Amino acid sequence: MADDLLDAAAPARKRRAGGRAGNAARRGGHVMEQMPWRIPVNHDRPIEPLDESGVEAIHDGAMRILEEIGIEFLNEEALGLFRQAGCKVEGTNVRMGRDWVIEMVRRAPSEFTITPRNPERELPIGGRHLLFGNVSSPPNYWDLETGRKVPGTRAHCANLFRLTQHFNCIHFAGGYPVEPVDIHPSVRHLDVLFDKLTITDKVAHAYSLGKERVEDAMEMVRIAGGLSEEEFRAKPRMYTNINSTSPLKHDQPMIDGCLRMIRRGQAVIVTPFTLAGAMAPVTMAGAVALSIAEALSAIALFQWVAPGCPCVIGTFTSNVDMKSGAPAFGTPEYMRATQMTGQLARFYGLPMRASGTCAANVPDGQAMWETCNSLWSAVQSRTNIVYHAAGWLEGGLIASPEKFVMDCEVLQMIQRYMEPEVWATGPDEIALDAIREVGSKGHYFGIQHTQDRYATAFYQPFVSDWRNYEAWEVAGSVWTQERAHRLYKEIIAEFEEPPMDSGTREELAEFVARRKGEGGAPTDF
After folding, report:
1. What CATH number does residue 394 fall under?
2. Distance CA 56, CA 82 (A)
3. Dist CA 246 CA 472 (whole Å)
4. pLDDT for the residue 32
5. pLDDT per position as a tens digit, 168-179
6. DSSP helix/strand/coil, 114
7. What are the UniProt keywords, alphabetically (predicted)?
8. Cα–Cα dist 257/210, whole Å
């Protein structure tokens, strides 16, 4: 089993310098070739279902929520800050004027960068840039070999980090790709962050779940980057993502975590999780207005505290199945809500985050069509950061390596779709000489124009099988999930960690040991 091949808890083996994890292609017999690392640029005009009056209607609805109804902030420090800003605070309810909100939001940069320990993996956030991240936070795991839903472990989590590092179409390492429930919550963040920062060299995330976890995460990212405190604070090196507690609430630890992050110069993403029909109005315009109000209330607070701090507005607006009450993802309503939120994000001048999601329980057809709907709605809305872009199942309750590999095929296709040479119209692309040479009686396979371009003319898949049925049958009739599973096992077997200075690694390990000795983060059990 993959877990037996590489146990995350075992001492690190001797590594060769450089490693192969980020290579564009595996050589020496490896079956997979992937696209090189790149930052996709979205060249398409966004889809905008709302006209100008529609944007204004949702904006006005969000502002009226903030002015007339208010948001509950269950964080004492936040309440004091809102009072200082002149907002109306009654108990935990905060009402704020639209002029103040817009003034604060306009302080936020429309574009910024996040620089991880490997500066070659620096990410531009905003504009037309399109970035993909791994699945984050499911408590359960499923793979084809296990064949059932099981609680996540550290070994599962580490293997999903290895996929995160291996695939060049995954740009950042989000939260835990599966929750390792075999580690006590008081020290879980220390072990998983150690794994994340040694197995990957991509932009990392911190959970805002209590001051100890956030402060430990920032310190570990600082150590892993070999940074002084001044260097760490000078520019974003990591980020956190928080969800509001819909409807109309922000809790204590998430706001606390964001305040700690922005005071040390780090980035925050505010993503309301609104399900139309349950946690938000059943109408998508009402659900989006509620989501916008929840997000802007927090972003305005952060800009009051640290003007110009890097903030991203997120959307996680979908609907429930009105027959069962279960969350649904990748639906037509989900797609339109994402597109609508994209219009509002551009209206406010904020970078945007969306997600690659599905409600399917296994990596099957439903999983892929719902995920494709989610991913393409992100593209259509000019989203900048796509969370959960690879590996998500069961509405975020399961992480799967097969689904991860299959999703990466889709992500690479999106990247290829965005490359300008696909739709270039120069003389070589119009190809009149080639058309004249072939005329009406020949074919294009053997002419020089084709020979010069055939190797790079079209997208080449690593999971899809383009052979006809008979050839596929002769080769063993291997279904997509099985091909993805085999590839996953090959990646894990051949994986080598990206290089890290031995002194830095030792310092990181010492920090983890010290914080464990101090008890880590407090829990009630």
Report:
1. 3.20.20.480
2. 26
3. 48
4. 78
5. 999 999 999 999
6. strand
7. Methyltransferase, Transferase
8. 7
What's the half-sphere exposure (Cβ side, CA atoms, 13 Å) at 212? 15
Residue 454 lies in a domain: no
Residue 486 placed within a domain:
no
**pLDDT confidence of residue 10:** 36
Report the C-alpha gap between 424 and 457 in whole angstroms: 12
In the three-class reduction of DSSP (H, G, I as helix; E, B as strand; rest coil), residue 414 is classed as helix
Going by C-beta distance under 8 Å and a sequence separation of 6 or more, which residues neighbour residue 494? 20, 26, 30
Q: Write out pLDDT tens, residues 298-331.
A: 999 999 999 999 999 999 999 999 999 999 999 9
The Cα angle at residue 321 between residues 317 and 327, in degrees rounded to 5: 45
The two structure tokens encoding residue 258: 């964001």
| Eight-state DSSP code of residue 33 | B
- For 230, the domain range is 57-418
**Number of domains present in the structure of the chain:** 1
The tally of CA atoms less than 13 A away on the side-chain side of residue 117 is 26
- Decide if 296 contacts 61 (C-beta within 8 A): no
pLDDT of residue 341: 98
Q: Where are the alpha helices (DSSP H) in 72-210?
A: 76-84, 98-105, 154-166, 185-199
What is the rounded distance in angstroms from the CA atom of residue 196 to the CA atom of residue 173? 8
pLDDT at 1: 37
Q: Which residues of the chain fall short of a pLDDT of 50?
A: 1-29
Tell me: the pLDDT tens digits for 84-125?
999 999 999 999 999 999 999 999 999 999 999 999 999 999
Among 314, 357, 363, 350, which Cα is nearest to 335's?
357
Do 490 and 32 contact (CB within 8 A), yes or no? yes
For residues 399 and 407, the answer to whether their CB atoms sit within 8 Å is no
Average of per-residue pLDDT values in the chain = 94
